[in-house]
Amino acid sequence: VQLYVYTAEGMSVCVPYSDIEQIELRPEFDCGTRVDGSSDDRLNAGTFHNDEFGDYTLMKMVKSDRVIVVHYSAGTLVFSDSDNQKTYEKFELLKEHDVNFKPIDFDINAR
After folding, report:
1. Which of 1, 6, 27, 33 is 20 to 30 Å from 94 by CA-CA measure?
2. What is the pTM of this model?
């Protein structure tokens, strides 16, 4: 069973729940610089680099300051939904479920 986050542009990340070490919600986040991927007025997605995580995977909608940070055995995934409220709702959904039993898919462009 895995956490699956994807964009309309075809980028996706699957993280097995058994590999998740911690999930946190942050009210704001410094993305750092893009190493690979794309950035436009709607979405920043790809491999980014910042001082805190080094290289990590980002899938962040520009309109959302809040992000969900997933620390797992192979690295770090940072993502958001289309706005702050929807990102918060996704985080609450994740908190409701023990990470070992329920699959959750997030299409961050489904609005």
Report:
1. 33
2. 0.85
